[in-house]
Amino acid sequence: MCGIVGLFLKDKALEPQLGALLTDMLITMTDRGPDSAGIAIYSDYSEGNGKLTVQSDNPESAYPGLDSQLSEALNAEVSIRVLDTHAVLETAVEKTAQARSILTTLRPGLRVMSAGESIEIFKEVGLPKNVADRFEIAKMSGSHGIGHTRMATESAVTTEGAHPFSTGPDQCLVHNGSLSNHNSLRRKLIREGVQIESLNDTEVGAAYLTWKMQNGATLGEALTSSLEDLDGFFTFVVGTKDGFGVVRDPIACKPAVMAETDQYVAFGSEYRALVNLPGIEDAKVWEPEPATVYFWNH
Amino acid sequence: MQTYDLEANGLRGLNETLHAQSETTNQTVWEVVNPKGSHAIAVGLDAPIEVTVKGSTGYYCAGMNQQATIRVEGSAGPGVAENMMSGTVIIDGDASQYAGATGHGGLLVIKGNASSRCGISMKGIDIVVHGNIGHMSAFMAQAGNLVVCGDAGDALGDSLYEACLFVRGSVKSLGADCIEKELRPEHIEILKDLLDRAGADAKPEEFKRYGSARQLYNFDVDNAAAY
To answer: Cβ–Cβ of A272/B58 closer than 8 Å?
Structure first.
């Protein structure tokens, strides 16, 4: 099943409430996906600053001293903000690729959840409420965010199997549905040199979009070609540095509802997820069309 | 009028209360407040009562309805009035996928648009949509009438049996074994009655009728090689 929520703010005055609004939406979608939850939040963009969100199964040993060791190896300033099993490392944006490769030797086993200038991804196994509490998502501010509650069908209930998946710098993907050609597509992408970590179908979808974009497609073009190349059921919501997009497969059996006001554009797997948003009574509410790419940008 | 606050008193209590109404009840008018997109509102009713839901609903609102008149003052989620037997269901806004699926009788009116699979496998229900309908509508529809004042999406009436489909606007594509048919006086009468009961401002003569070519559901020896 799975539940998706998304909120893209047009009104800056709502930004301090982004985390609280998304948390409420996410928890409402618990019965669509009680086994894991995750959120991608776009916040605190500042020119020249890069962020890596990492996850460790052993945060007590992984994070102490990591900022100073990484700083020394990079010869640049590094800050660390630890949130439960995750940590957000910040340094100069041009150093993030190097930092990522240093981390593989400095802390083997550390997983990079997201990289970019604005994005932070937090995801774990457990009830959405518990996951949101562990990361204190309700306290977060930001310009837009996407959340996912997972009911696993295609692969194990693990942190790596939880959504959102990173698809590139400041980009992420969440998925409701199941892809039926993910095994053959995974083999094809691996032959093309794309790195895929898990047996999860959505990770293949994310890797597919990344691969398309590395070969020159825009995100919109990559999403459009996904309608041709991916077989199965999907409602995808993607996040970018300054916007978010929605696409459903041509059969469109996975539910999707959107709402728009002067203050925001919101996405929910069900209308229930949207009912506590400010001004929802007067919002334009509609169901996105099948096989149609929607996009909103700042 | 009886008012039920769904948020305060819960779904099970609502449906139990509505199920307890019989044909002789004097509590004939009900209002459900704070639906907030909840699932399975006013499901399985079997009494001639009027229920108005003050807001949008989630999955399966008014499913299996008999006798009751249920109005949603908002939009309805997937499977509204699924397997309805009799009575009337009116949606003031839009309806999500498979509205009126497998319905045996009664009237479903959607004042906005209906999305995909509207009237899938309908078995005698009448459905009037003031707006448009999505793809694969009336798939395997067996009996009843589907009236669409707007446009229809892809694959209308795929593998259709004996349901009658009437569309005023364009049809993006017809499904397998669905063809346009002549609109005869008896169809004008059916349309007139349904449009009138659904409060739709459209002229019966403006509609086109679609039905089954009856090539698919009987075995044809010439098609043997296809199996």
So the answer is: yes
Residues 6+ positions from A16 with CB-CB distance below 8 Å: A141
Q: Mind listing the domains of chain A with CATH numbers? A: 3-44+127-297 (3.60.20.10), 46-117 (3.30.70.980)
Alpha-carbon span A72 to A255, nearest angstrom: 49
For residue A103, the model assigns a pLDDT of 96
Rg of chain B over all Cα atoms, to the nearest angstrom: 18
Instruction: Give the closest of B77, B115, B134 to A271, CB-based.
Output: B77
Structure tokens at B226: 């296809």
Nearest CA in chain B to A268: B37
Q: Do the Cβ atoms of A290 and B78 come within 8 Å?
A: no
- Helix, strand, coil abundance in chain B, percent, nearest 5: 15, 25, 60
Contact predicate A120/A54, CB 8 Å: no
Tell me which residue has tokens 């004939």.
B28
How many Cβ atoms from other residues are within 10 Å of residue A235's Cβ? 23
- C-alpha A38/C-alpha A30 separation (Å) is 12
Is B82 strand, coil or helix? coil
Are B101 and B117 spatial neighbours (Cβ–Cβ below 8 Å)?
yes
Cα dihedral B129/B133/B139/B140 (nearest 10): 10
A2 is a catalytic site residue: yes
- Quick one: how many helices (H) and strands (E) in chain A? 8, 16
pLDDT tier at A46, thresholds 50, 70, 90: confident
Contact yes or no for A105/A66 (Cβ under 8 A): no
Rounded distance, CA B33 to CA B40, Å?
14
CATH number of B2-215: 2.160.20.60
The DSSP symbol for B163 reads -
Sort out which chain A residues have CB atoms less than 8 A from B116's CB and list them: 251-253, 290
Tell me: pLDDT of A136 over 90.
yes
Query: Which of B119, B202, B107 lies closest to B163, judged by CA?
Result: B119
Beta strands in chain A (DSSP E): 3-9, 36-42, 49-55, 79-83, 86-92, 111-116, 119-125, 144-150, 165-168, 171-179, 232-240, 243-248, 257-260, 264-268, 284-286, 294-297
ipTM at complex level: 0.91
Q: Are A70 and A139 in contact (CB under 8 A)?
A: no
What is the residue-averaged pLDDT of chain A?
95
Query: Which residues are paired to A148 by β-bridges?
Result: A4, A38
Q: Is A290 on the interface with B (CB under 8 A)?
A: yes
Give the DSSP H or E segment for A19.
helix A18-28
Q: Find where tokens 């300033």 sit.
A: A77
Could you give the count of Cα atoms lying within 13 Å of B9 in the half-sphere of its Cβ?
12
Min Cα distance B162 → chain A (Å) is: 24
Residue stretches of chain B with pLDDT short of 70 = 226-227
Residue A226 CA to residue A214 CA, distance in Å, equals 15
